[in-house]
Amino acid sequence: MLMRFRRLLGYAGIAFVAFYLFKMPEAAAASVNGVFDRILGGADSLAVFFSAVLGP
To answer: Which domain of life does the UniProt lineage start with (predicted)?
Structure first.
């Protein structure tokens, strides 16, 4: 029962992403860019932290 529900949620998520991508491609691209910007910002913060901890 739980696996069916998870599968249904997965299909619904894929359908939502496809709908979002086809109906609003500019907004979808901006969302992806925002996610990557946050990931890169987090990686930069970790680099600064480890440089401060392990540095001279």
So the answer is: Bacteria
Structure-token pair, residue 7: 């599968």
Q: Is the pTM of this model over 0.70?
A: no
What does the alpha-carbon distance between residue 54 and residue 56 come to, in Å, rounded to a whole number?
7
- Burial class for 53, CB neighbours closer than 10 Å (0-12, 13-18, 19+): exposed
Residue partners of 20: CB distance under 8 A and separation at least 6: 27, 28
Q: What is the pLDDT of residues 20-49, one digit of tens each?
A: 889 999 998 999 999 999 999 999 999 999
Q: Please tell me the distance from the alpha carbon of residue 22 to that of residue 36, in angstroms, as a whole number.
A: 20
